[in-house]
Write a structure and sequence with these properties.
The complex is a heterodimer of chains A (114) and B (113).
Chain A lengths: L3 E4 L2 E4 L5 E7 L5 E7 L5 E9 L2 E4 L6 E3 L9 E3 L8 E8 L9 E2 L3 E5 L1
Parallel strand pairs in A: 2-11
Antiparallel strand pairs in A: 1-3, 3-8, 4-5, 4-9, 5-6, 7-8, 9-10, 9-11
Chain B lengths: L3 E4 L2 E5 L4 E7 L6 E7 L6 E7 L4 E4 L2 E6 L4 E6 L8 E7 L9 E2 L3 E6 L1
Parallel strand pairs in B: 2-11
Antiparallel strand pairs in B: 1-3, 3-8, 4-5, 4-9, 6-7, 7-8, 9-10, 9-11
Classes of the chains: A mainly beta (114), B mainly beta (113).
């Protein structure tokens, strides 16, 4: 069963703690992305990776970090430096072939800072 | 960089009516325009997309039109059903391999029976 999985579905964090969100895909996609969604807002890009061991900052990268050690995995760490981390986090992946690079999304992780 | 504006922010229709959502984009280099449907608490699902080499694409009750000159594209849903109720997002990208999407802020569509 191919797709993108994100875990956990809900995550609670105390202020000042780092937390890591998981994203795994078995679609053999080269590119992976992290977006943040706030109520009434569109999706804003945090980081993206076009290939293993390479990633670029998106529009709102401050307070976040990523790694891309494997093609299948693109974990996102929300650090204590992120001032307002409560949000819905979405991971996506896509092929890199021109004309076949549709992005597919995972089910999301809702992070709440207590 | 690219900026995508989406209107309206909310749309209420009666079952069976048509619904139209419009988006404009700023970067003339953008050439890929997907539409996503997001149900409450779930990730967005691609429902239709269009590339800049065509002006219109249709899939059953859903169609998308693109006007490159005016830099706008629209989603048309005909014969709406209650299950069409969701948040719809448009997006645009220059579509260089691995380039991220720029999203509109979404339209909440409510279909009442």
């Amino acid at each position: 069963d191919g797709g993108i999985t994100q875990s956990p579905k809900y995550l609670f964090r105390k202020e000042g703690q780092n937390v890591t969100l998981s994203c795994e895909q078995n679609l053999n996609h080269d590119a992976m992305y992290w977006y943040r969604q706030d109520p009434g807002q569109g999706l804003r890009l945090i980081y993206y990776s076009q290939i293993v061991n390479d990633f670029q900052k998106g529009d709102i990268a401050e307070g976040y970090s990523v790694s891309r050690e494997k093609k299948e995995s693109f974990p996102l760490t929300v650090t204590s430096a992120q001032k307002n981390p409560t949000a819905f986090y979405l991971c996506a992946s896509s092929p890199r072939d021109r004309g076949k690079d549709t992005q597919y999304f995972g089910p999301g992780t809702r992070l709440t800072v207590l | 960089g690219e900026n995508v504006e989406q209107h309206p922010s909310t749309l209420s229709v009666q079952e069976g009516d048509s619904a139209v959502i419009k988006c404009t984009y700023s970067d003339s280099a953008s050439n890929y325009f997907p539409w996503y449907k997001q149900e409450l608490g779930k990730g967005p699902q691609l429902i239709i997309d269009i590339r800049s080499n065509v002006g219109e694409k249709k899939d059953q009750r859903i169609a998308v039109t693109l006007n490159k000159t005016a830099k706008h594209f629209s989603l048309h849903i005909t014969e709406t059903q209650p299950e069409d109720s969701a948040v719809y997002f448009c997006a645009a990208t220059p579509n260089q391999a691995g380039t991220a999407l720029i999203f509109g802020k979404g339209t909440t569509l409510s279909v009442s029976s």
